Amino acid sequence: MCDLAGSRHALSRFHRRSRGAGQDCGTGLPVTGLTDAALLEAVRHTFDRARSDPAAPFRIGVAVSGGGDSLALLHLLHLVAPDAGYDLHAVTVDHGLRPEAAAEAAQVADFCAGLGLPHDTLRWSGPQPTGNLMDQARRARLDLIAGWARARGIGHVALGHTADDRAESFLMNLARASGLDGLSGMRAVWADAGVIWHRPLLGQTRAALRDYLRGQGIGWIDDPSNDNDRFTRVKARRALRALAPLGITVERLSGTIDNLAVVRATLTGVTAQFARGIREESGALVLPRDLWAGWPEEIRRRLLICVIRWMNGASYPPRAAQIAALAAGLDLGRDATLAGVRFRARGDHVLITREARATMPPVVWGMTWDHRWQVQGPGGESLHIAALGAEGLRQCPDWRQKGPREALIVSPAVWHKDRLIAAPLARNEPEWGATLGPSFGMFILAH
């Protein structure tokens, strides 16, 4: 472990060393060499491209573990922020899996204080007794950070993954016999849980970022789990070193991943075009059976995966065999339920809705409900958002004019204890509204 406590004045040291070293391609940022200039430009380019209105405030969250990758990202963004007009906020997740974790989070907080950046530490309640520990920790980390960002009005969050992470993930997915999606690499940008996530450093190597930190006199934390052979990623890291004599390096694999990503992006665009034949209605989807019958197998598979993930908010799709069985059943006009999503044959179409018992429990006013619904109106702390349900629907006499029953009972409603206050989708509510984010078409393109 390298101590971060002595790094709080690294920024001023950076500026002292860089005077007279040149400027970064017109950005006005001081640089110490071509490598630093490229890193700064990569970070700034990512967020300038994501910024819709240069004159509006632009809040960015940075996930910082204290490791070299995330710490370099934080420092680079801190240098870019004043000139670019970014409002930075740092966050660290303490998973509680190692005794040193709390002290490491405190070191990150101290480093951020030295840079004058606001910082929060989030704590995970702990893993489930069964399941992949690292995967649970990863999902918990993203969920916690997403909630933190939404609560602070932060729409964009930066993660410090590198080209090495892409290469390691490629090998791990290759061992699982993954298809195009698994082999086409980590996404540079995507939307999930009400946040837009960015990986500005996917084109940079881990070694380059550590060289950058050494040049600024900044220490970082080395997680001992990075050397633990129990973890698949560590095995992939060592396999990469063994493959280097064959010319299979991080740089070479990055080129392969880029080529596959181009193919994936093209296929995603084609899938979104086919999806235009699917109609959204009160949070449900209406799939014409004649269109379904004429679609290529791969398009059907991709659309089913997108439908399910759009509705249930899952990070991963169901197993391939389950998707294949679902598709075969739809061909035969059979009803089905998979991963919290219902498929019901209705004459010339299939009605796709959320499964009632799979919807999220109530959430306090202002929070996103069931992964995708946001309710607007004169709410308050005493109110909560939950499914309308059959009992709530009975209080909406004109619901048949609003949409299918299967869709409305799983639509969001505003409650005060057991009293229905508003049902924005099932009855006329001038002061209330409910919006989906994102739409199904946008979800396909963003995922």
UniProtKB/TrEMBL annotation:
InterPro entries named among the record's database cross-references: Rossmann-like_a/b/a_fold, TilS/TtcA_N, tRNA_Ile_lys_synt, tRNA_Ile_lys_synt_N
Residues engaged in binding ATP: 65-70
Keyword tRNA processing: yes
Annotated ranges, domain tRNA(Ile)-lysidine/2-thiocytidine synthase N-terminal: 60-238
Molecular function in Gene Ontology: ATP binding; tRNA(Ile)-lysidine synthase activity
GO BP terms in the entry: tRNA modification
Signal peptide: none
Catalyses which reaction(s): cytidine(34) in tRNA(Ile2) + L-lysine + ATP = lysidine(34) in tRNA(Ile2) + AMP + diphosphate + H(+)
Record keywords: ATP-binding, Cytoplasm, Ligase, Nucleotide-binding, tRNA processing
Transmembrane segments: none
Protein EC: 6.3.4.19
Matching CDD domains: TilS_N
Pfam families in the record: ATP_bind_3
Enzyme kind, highest EC tier: ligase
Entry annotated with the keyword Cytoplasm: yes
Subcellular location: Cytoplasm
GO annotations of cellular component type: cytoplasm
Entry superkingdom: Bacteria
Similarity-based family: Belongs to the tRNA(Ile)-lysidine synthase family.
Function summary: Ligates lysine onto the cytidine present at position 34 of the AUA codon-specific tRNA(Ile) that contains the anticodon CAU, in an ATP-dependent manner. Cytidine is converted to lysidine, thus changing the amino acid specificity of the tRNA from methionine to isoleucine.
Domain notes: The N-terminal region contains the highly conserved SGGXDS motif, predicted to be a P-loop motif involved in ATP binding.
Protein name (Swiss-Prot/TrEMBL): tRNA(Ile)-lysidine synthase
Gene: tilS
